[in-house]
Amino acid sequence: MAKMSRRKVVKGIMTTGVLGVTGGLRAATTTTTSTTHADAITPDDFASIEKVTGRHFTPKQREMMVENATAKREVLVNLRNRKIDPNIEPAVHFDPRIAGVSYPTGSSSCTMSDGPVPDYDGDIEHLAFATVVDLSRLIFAKKITSTQLTKMYLDRLKRFGTRLNCVITLTEELALAQAKRADAELAGGKSRGPLHGIPWGAKDLLATKGVPTTWGVKPYADRRFDEDATVVKRLEEAGAVLIAKLSMGELAMGDVWFGGMTRNPWKPSTGSSGSSAGPGAATAAGLVAFAVGSETLGSIISPCITNGLTGLRPTYGRVSRFGAMALARTMDKLGPMARGVEDCALILSAIHGPDGRDSTAASVPFNWSASTNLKKLRVGIALADVDNALKGKNEEKNKTMRAAIDHVRELVGELKPITRPPTKNYTGLASLTIACESACNFMELIDSDQINELVQQDAGSWPNVFRVGSTIPAADYLRAQQVRTQLQLEMHEALKDVDCYVTFPYAGPTVSYTNLTGHPSLVTRCGMFEGLPLSIEFVGDLYREDAILCLGLAFERSTEWHKQWPDTTKIPPL
Q: pTM of the prediction?
């Protein structure tokens, strides 16, 4: 069966309303069109509204509605014309925590694994595909410097970034300054932790002071913010070196941005998937040590699958999103994309926690150790979804996937079957939520001619999704959120006897369900098929990133898949 690109899947979802889509400081100034309505509302006007919303009013009811609707229209127009700082959260918040359930308290900790300093032959480019853990050990052993590493990755970004179309802005001057500082601090005995001196790339929806932040669209191509996003600031405090702003699908959809399609280094004739397309391609191609992406409905998971990376989508609210583009505020999350499981743990440790800027960021500790006893974990399996993943597939591919499940079972001793909530009860919930919330977040763009500058203009693309989202009644949106609470309760019931469960990405409704409920997910390599990577997924209970990272690390250490990376010298020029 032919594999559909995530962009096609997302567009189909947003067009048809089937299960779900993906994934700043100040929006660029837009020229809004007139929103003055001189025409009087008549009873007949409600007939169209009834048709769109599936309601029915009597003629008498329509007449009674005219005066009130006219007054409400004035309020709506005034609201749209009012300038609002996009960092301001709505008064209605989403919280993944269930009332009456206890969650971790206390302080956080992250203990890196013990291990030898990797062999190094003196050729810095031979470290292009090394993990953050190995690079950190080499830096602290004084085998390499941050400046050497940064210059190597900058050179690779210049050579291969254009071929992959994965770089929007190189931050060369900033990177060299940060690397120089890191080397000076390390030489003086000051350590900021395991990320000290490690070069990284940011998805271009994270604000960076004085550096363009484009959100992947032409209207914002030259926009600069006056402060860094919290994630950017925290990684700088951890000593990491920002070397590039990486491409993203337009406003966090797909792998097409105003510069074209970002390419998959494993198969350059295809896209990198999205919307964290640049972080996916650049990390897999050894152009950065790690990247930070965002997800609303698959935007970390999907490019990690396509590019063969390890990706961690944390619990909703685990990481502050201040300074990140808002798509659907009750579903947006930020997380690491890397070449190793332990890398993701180290990155999450540096960026998690409240900051006083994002009101949804929760004060829940993250405690993780690379030496955690795997046998203490209660691990489940979503049998129906695993069976669905194997249905109708190539037998060679199925064999690899079955072997991955069997291997997980060998590692933990027992896999407890879980039954996730039935799909029929929650169809369309994710797509409706995203349509409504994104229409709110991009209201100024919708009302301007600049919406026509987006590359993608078909039925499943953002311009049309925003327009449709703006017509969905607030009462129906709020009712959908009540249904979402019911899904949270059912997911809590499904996972009450496990710490995490194993499945395959996009098998069943997992991506929709977990993005709606806020549960964390880790994807990592489990094999290869026809020259392309295959991935397995570990889904954790709320705030149990430690569980999925522990299981993922054990799986990674007992396999060899994470050591295979694409040959970038074979990537043809655009």
A: 0.91
